[in-house]
Amino acid sequence: MKQFLKFTLATIVGILIVWLLGVLIFFGIIGAIAGASESTPKLKPNSVYELTLEGNLIDRSKDDPFSSVYSKAFGLSTENSIGLDDVLANIQKAKNDANIVGIYLKGGMLSGGIASIKEVRNALLDFKKTGKFVVAYADNYSQRMYYLVSCADKILINPQGMLELKGLSTQTMFLKNTLDKLGIEMQIVKVGTFKSAVEPFVNTKMSDANRLQVSVFMNSIWNTILKEISTSRKIPLDKLNMYADEMMMFQPTEKSKQYGLVDSLVYIDQVDSIIRKYAKNIKKSDNLTFVKHSTLIKLPDTNKYDKNKVAVIYAIGDITDSESEGIVSKNMVKTINDVAKDSAVKAVVFRVNSPGGSAYGSEQIWHALSMLKTKKPLIVSMGDYAASGGYYISCMADQIVAQPNTLTGSIGIFGVIPNIKGLNEKLGFTYDGVKTNKMSDAISVNRPFTPEERDLMQNYVNRGYELFVKRCADGRKMKIEQIKAIAEGRVWTGEDALKIGLVDKIGGLKDAIKLAVDKAKLKSYNISEYPVKEDFTTRFMKNFSKDIETRFVKAQLGEQYTIFKQIKNLDKINGIQARMTYDLIIQ
Fold first, then answer.
1. Who contacts 58 (Cβ-Cβ below 8 Å, separation ≥6)?
2. Cα atoms in the Cβ-side hemisphere of radius 13 Å centred on 85
3. What average pLDDT does the structure give for the chain?
4. Fold match between domain 47-166+247-298 and domain 309-429+441-579
5. Contact by Cβ (8 Å): 179, 422
């Protein structure tokens, strides 16, 4: 009887949990349907586009309405994301709509790649050409946010706020000592003096070659940031560097105004009256209407339907052969082939934001794009990264567009095979077996390479490198010797890549689309994005358990999550890799 009651109670609890989850999903779906059915917003005269700068800036927005619901349910912090695609589209809408008189950049802590932030900044500068204003306010400005808002007509800060200006830094975490303690040796075969992705596994500090390349591209990125701040704020470069050396965030806020970094020290309730002064032709009796980012997204594009399409294919994340996230090669190849077959698509922009990954996957994508290029103009737009495998899948394009602070190049190949003999000895494991041929047990993880095995692996990687170089030479119409002189796994900024012929033009996605339109000789067109975004219910059902796990681990590990992620991702290194440095974080 006791067992019966126990099982009955367990069944009832299970049914209740499933029922509650079903109710949650049901009301989420109803809410989303209701939201989708809302009437198209109508903008009033004297409207101001309010863009809140917080969360993570990603290339494409994700429909994730349940994020805050289940984060709160499990006591976890909500991670917001904002799509670069939506931000750029909204700024363009605000530029073209006569009802919108300006943009209010409302302070937050937006994190994102420096090239992506520059793309938003460029869109704001273009917006200002109409004579409309941009005003920014924040309690605190991170360095990246200050770079973004430095183009504003008026920069406001809380009188007790902080403004970060300190220069750039980056650190690499090295795992060799940890792996030694575990009894694991990472056996490396590679081509490229500058190919530093493997260094964390075999070194305890940066190699001289890696230190050189990182120093060069970090200074290049910093100089781009300083030049643009200097132009907007009319502050000499040498003074900006002096202010950075003072570590501005710990200086009195008054110094930021004294140095000309900001215009006024005000509280948030004073912002409205300041914005009113910038709104032209507005009477004292008129009301300003602030239009939220989410509301403006719902405003339809004013472009008329056109049968001619320009396809924008997004390639975001690591290149993998079978993972569900990132650029899954077989899925990307299918998308490319479908676009190639679509007669309505007259030109293609391939948007790459990837540090690389599987060399095999990169080759498959390269081939599909090469076939597409025989039918339609192909322009590559590089985001924050288009390095190693990210460059491999870009090199065949008719033209390549990159931001000056894009990280690209890294033309090199490596392979990693762990040797866990030491770990086996620590755990007391032994192995024995039989084989039919000399190499039947080759490349075993339970022992070191034999000299013959290492030679075989090195030759395999060498062939991969030679193929990579040839792809780049053919795509860029350069000699193999010219590519090898700038390859060796070296990372370049877009600004330097332009000088050595790895890219054709400095610019963003908008510039790439214009090149594609011009090459296809289109007078009118519509933009179509691929892969088609998953609807919110699909994403919810697919990622619910995975998101919960990720959010929970992040909450528990905090800053140590990066270490956990690096170790966890070791099992993804299958075959030879065309990949840039792991988890390069520029601060």
1. 81, 82, 83, 84, 112, 316
2. 15
3. 86
4. yes
5. no
Q: What sign has the CA pseudo-torsion 473, 476, 478, 482?
A: negative
Rounded to 5°, angle at Cα 547 from 11 and 120: 155
For residue 197, give the nearest of 173, 224, 219 by alpha carbon: 173
As a residue count, the chain comes to 587
Question: Which residues lie across from 351 on neighbouring strands?
Answer: 314, 381
Q: Which residues of 350-371 are buried (b: 16+ CB within 10 A; e: fewer)?
A: bbbbbbbbbbbbbbbbbebbbe
Which two three-digit tokens encode residue 141?
A: 């400005």
Stronger pLDDT, 536 or 386, i.e. the higher one: 386
Element (H, E) at 203: none
Q: Where are the domains of the chain?
A: 47-166+247-298, 309-429+441-579
* 285 catalytically annotated: no
Q: HEC string of 120-188?
A: HHHHHHHHHCCCCEEEEEEEEECHHHHHHHCCCCEEEEEEEEEECCCCCCECCCCCHHHHHHHCCEEEE
Examine the pLDDT at 523 and tell me if it is beyond 60.
yes
Please, where are the H alpha helices in 437-586? Answer: 451-476, 480-486, 494-500, 509-520, 536-557, 561-568
What CATH homologous superfamily does 47-166+247-298 map to?
Answer: 2-enoyl-CoA Hydratase; Chain A, domain 1 (3.90.226.10)
Is the CB of residue 382 less than 8 Å from the CB of residue 401?
A: yes
For tokens 């792809």, the residue is 471
Peptide bond into 418 cis (omega under 30): no
**Per-residue pLDDT at 36:** 44
CATH of 309-429+441-579, one of 3.40.190.150, 1.10.10.60, 3.40.640.10, 3.90.226.10: 3.90.226.10
Confidence of residue 278 (pLDDT cuts 50, 70, 90): confident
Phi and psi based region of residue 167 (left: phi greater than 0; alpha: psi -120 to 50; beta: remaining): left
Of 131, 137, 119, give the one whose Cα is nearest residue 95: 131
Spatial distance between the Cα atoms of 404 and 387, rounded to a whole number of angstroms = 14
Q: What is d(CA 537, CA 148) in angstroms, rounded to the nearest whole number?
A: 34
Do 261 and 155 meet the contact criterion of CB atoms below 8 Å apart? Answer: yes
Q: Which is the catalytic residue, given 256, 354, 362, 388?
A: 388
Percent of the chain with pLDDT over 90: 70
d(C-alpha 296, C-alpha 50), whole Å: 9
Cα(395)–Cα(409) distance, rounded to whole angstroms?
10
Exposure string (b/e) for 179-204, b if CB count within 10 Å is 16 or more? beeeebbbbbbbbbbbbbbbbbbbee
Q: Which member of 195, 309, 376, 421 is catalytic? A: 195
Give the C-alpha separation, 496 to 392, whole Å. Answer: 18
Q: Which two tokens stand for residue 147?
A: 């770079």
pTM of the model: 0.85
Clarify whether 195 is annotated catalytic.
yes
**Alpha helices, H only, 386-487:** 389-392, 421-427, 451-476, 480-486
